[in-house]
Amino acid sequence: MTAKLVFFSAAAALVLSACGTVANQTVGTINVDGDDYELRTRTIERANGSFDITSVRVNGYYITCLPDSPNDCESKVRNGLSARIDRS
Prior knowledge:
This protein is an alpha+beta fold. The chain contains two helices and four strands, in the order H-E-E-E-E-H. It has a four-stranded antiparallel β-sheet. The protein starts with a helix and ends with a helix.
């Protein structure tokens, strides 16, 4: 199930970015269990307004997360790492 979430999160990010223009992008890092992971926030502009989407990069995949929700991005990193272990 986690592997499906990783795929659908990546697909959702692609679909959302296809429906608008990236107006701004900030890149930072998040530290989970002693390792740094890329945290990317994009502002997407569409005809009816703009919105932000944040994702964390785990094993080459971007997984959408909610940085304002406590531990959501950290949890997504751990889930992404577990999904890779389960597939091997």
